[in-house]
Amino acid sequence: MLKNMTTKFVIAALFLISIQGIAAPRSIELPEETAKFKESIHPGYIIAQQKCSICHSADYINLQPSGMNLKQWTAEVTKMQHAYGAPITDDDIKVIGQYLATTYGNEKLAAITTSVATTTPVASAIDVKTLLANNACLGCHALSQKIVGPAYHDVAERYRKNPKALETVMANIKAGGANKWSAVPMPPFPALTDAELKVLAQFVLSQ
Fold this sequence. Notes:
Layout: H1 2-23, H2 44-51, H3 59-62, H4 70-82, H5 90-103, H6 128-134, H7 152-158, H8 165-175, H9 194-205
Helix pairs in contact: 2-5, 4-5, 8-9
Binding site for heme c: 137, 141, 186
Signal peptide: 1-23
Organism: Methylotenera versatilis (strain 301)
């Protein structure tokens, strides 16, 4: 009888230990992003920084077969749009494909004639909705709740009493970076003009 009770206690204790191990909270720390897109004078370099890095690291490019040509790289970028819903336009696909083919593939930059459409059309009065859409801002941010990045309302609250709020948010949008809100990096947007940065920053701070 005593032996049976002892056995039951041992089994119960082991069960509780296993449950505690399963239920114990675990924290996962993401490694700091160190991979960068290869620099190039090709305009696709800036677009790749802005839009490709929204969904994956620059390391993903290095995992592709070496020596891919323009047609192959363009097909790969097209797949990102059609299969995965990447926030890129048809014009973006052409320009990014050219950048990848000349920087990571076997094409020569001088051999490719680039016809680059403006990726962020700007009218005389800059439309904030167009800027948000063309730069995929709403893929990571929402007005009042966190998605990948902070909610715009939370950003506005943080800088509400900061006399340099506008300049700070403009600089943060342009430079991107990590560890301001979380370890997840925000891509830089160096192609945005000061006027566009100001419109976006004013919109964020008005929430």
